[in-house]
Write a structure and sequence with these properties.
Layout (H helix, E strand, L loop, with lengths): L28 H16 L2 H22 L4 H32 L9 H22 L1 H4 L20 H6 L10 H12 L3
Length: about 190
């Protein structure tokens, strides 16, 4: 959606692996994949990145309010949204620390780490929505050929739409959020 190519679907047909190159016992590939996905989901929340993005957004909204010498409804909405996301992000960080402590204790990540993936990716998307809102219509227009790396600058870039579009993928990769909810329901809640 943003002009880049980062997410892929890969198929392996008729692949043979020599016995000495097997990672686990024959027929246990899905068991290994689930184990690895549990660890991956602990990272897909991207808490540190979201904290940095939130700070950029808050600074941008404050500058925009000063430049306008009044608080428009758009800036007020962004400030309110920032507070909500900040609270959710704090709760997510605490939950992540709890899971990390369990890992240190020797417990492998279970189905409950899916919560990190769900909430973390929803926060990432909410941040880009708030950035578009704070930037207003003049800053939302996408420019062909521009990549999202410009978001690393101190000020929000003139073209926020590519970043917004790029973050739509977060609720799909590493197992869609719908699948994560099913995993939690089945394995964590026993439903």
């Amino acid at each position: 959606m943003d002009g880049g190519h980062e997410v892929n679907e890969v198929f392996f047909d008729d692949v043979e692996v020599p016995v000495e190159n097997r990672v686990h016992d024959e027929g246990k590939g899905w068991t290994v994949a689930k184990y690895l996905l549990g660890h991956e989901r602990m990272n897909t929340a991207r808490i540190g990145t979201s904290k940095r993005e939130l700070e950029r957004l808050k600074a941008f909204a404050a500058r925009a309010a000063q430049e306008r010498q009044r608080r428009s409804s758009r800036i007020r909405a962004s400030a309110t949204g920032c507070r909500g996301v900040e609270i959710e992000l704090m709760a997510l960080a605490i939950t992540n620390l709890r899971f990390l402590d369990q890992l240190r204790g020797g417990r492998a990540p279970g189905a409950e780490v899916s919560m990190l993936k769900i909430k973390g990716t929803e926060i990432q998307q909410a941040l880009t929505e708030l950035m578009l809102e704070a930037g207003g219509p003049a800053r939302a227009g996408a420019r062909p050929g521009r990549r999202r790396h410009r978001c690393a600058r101190r000020r929000l870039p003139a073209a926020l739409a590519p970043r917004y579009c790029n973050m739509r993928k977060t609720t799909i990769y590493a197992g869609s959020n719908e699948i994560q909810r099913n995993i939690i329901a089945k394995h964590a809640l026993g439903l």
